[in-house]
Design a protein that fits this description.
The chain is mainly beta and 234 residues long. The chain contains 1 helix and 20 strands. The relative contact order is 0.12.
Amino acid sequence: MKRLILFVVLIAITVCCLYAQEDNKYTLDNIRTGIKSAGEPYIADKYIVFTAEDNHRFTGIAFDFEDYRTIHAYEKLIAYDYDNNPRGTVLFYILPVPKNSTGISYRMIFDGLWTTDPLNPVKTFSFESGTYVSQVRYSNMTATVTEKKNDKVTFIHNSDPGKIVRLSGTFSNWDSFIYYMNETSPGHYEIELPLPSGTYYYCYYEGLSPILDDTNPAKVYTPEGRIASVITIN
């Protein structure tokens, strides 16, 4: 009997591990899909996303919690615009947020030369390493995905800096000139709306063409025949 119980427990642990691996793969695939261009590091789910321009033979990153001894190579990604046309390549590295931490310091290396992150304005002098390092502080990071909190929804859109971005949906009778999103950091747009319980279809506008929310994988065809992002508030 004890052997049978142990066997059942091992099977349960194996199944849980397989589900966890599949969930992590799904999350990472969504994060990669959401990368459109190089910019400041940001938090996505429980990961920190670092990006860089693809203009060096080698780009790497090293972290303070590893004493800068390990250099992690960036990966290359083909970035697509919202019409699914390739718009060039971007480099990225995805790091799980270290446990029991409120921030990290890091350095980058381009073709053998150490430097701070040129896309991250937050840097400080490290007396331990005797040089400047870039920093990511989690408490200061902006929201990175459209999410609901209580009876409010924070809508998120990432694009090029300096755009005029509007939000439209069933909550505005598809009028795209009511809600204008705020550019809280270069290329990062957001707006918070109080919405009662229900299911809402929506999209963003840069000009006259609708844009789906690439931070929200839920999509639907509306009765009018258009494709839109969808969010449900319980």
